[in-house]
Amino acid sequence: MALTRRQKELMDFLSEFIRKNGYSPSYEEIASGLNLASLATVHKHIQALQAKNYLRRSFNHSRSLEIGERYVTEEQARHTGADFAVQLMGRIAAGTPVEAIQNPEALHFSDFARSDSTYALQVRGDSMIEDHICSGDFVLVEKNDPVKNGDIVVALVNGDEATLKRYYSEPDGRVRLQPANATMEPIYVDPGQLQVQGRVLAVMRKY
Q1: How do beta strands 55-57 and 65-67 pair?
Q2: Enzyme catalytic residues
Q3: In the chain, where does DSSP find H-type helix?
Q4: In the beta sheet, which residues pair with residue 140?
Q5: What are 41's strand-pairing partners?
Q6: Three-class secondary structure of residue 170 per DSSP
């Protein structure tokens, strides 16, 4: 989940304070530095950032806030141009008004490309159209071992034939590669003839 604008400001304040002083600020210093109304507001933001793995906090210690690895990674990506973000202005369902977000969040594409083992493929063919993956779409794939039943995977069959299908282990020991197209039959393959090259994380479509 992405940071809200206020959460990003708090993380940037913490990072700069720790860089300059060598220790984390107190809640009072955070409230003062960000013009927050109360310590309860600071505490609420800290809890939310812990839940998102942007912060770590040692209990029973004063000035115990530590910057989490996720924030460090995203900042490194942002400064090297490897990350791209757009404002998430609201949420919408067909036929209903937009649900406005009071403090717009940023949607970071690094939330989808979570590591350097993530790569993209362009889809050719219609075998996954009932999962809303169409020919010409791009899929983000993460190398992931093992996969579980129902995952959409990139599967290499017999060492030379790559396909995008849902993965299922069958009771007889074989693997079923299931298309999402009622006009197509599943592919059954022995595990020794199959190499799973990754699990689909997201689908992107350009209009």
Answers
A1: antiparallel
A2: 127, 165
A3: 5-21, 27-34, 39-51, 69-79
A4: 120, 202
A5: none
A6: coil
- CA–CA separation, 174 vs 126, rounded Å? 24
Name the residue among 193, 188, 192 with its Cα closest to residue 172.
188
Tell me the pTM: 0.54
Tell me the domains of the chain and their CATH numbers: 5-79 (1.10.10.10), 118-204 (2.10.109.10)
Give the chain's residues under pLDDT 50: 96
Q: What is the pLDDT of residue 130?
A: 94
The SS3 of residue 167 is strand
Q: What are the backbone dihedrals phi and psi of residue 99, each rounded to the nearest 5 degrees, phi first?
A: -85, 110
Tokens 């994380």 belong to which residue? Answer: 201
Which amino acid does the sequence have at 194? Answer: L
* Adjacent-strand bridge partners of 187: 177
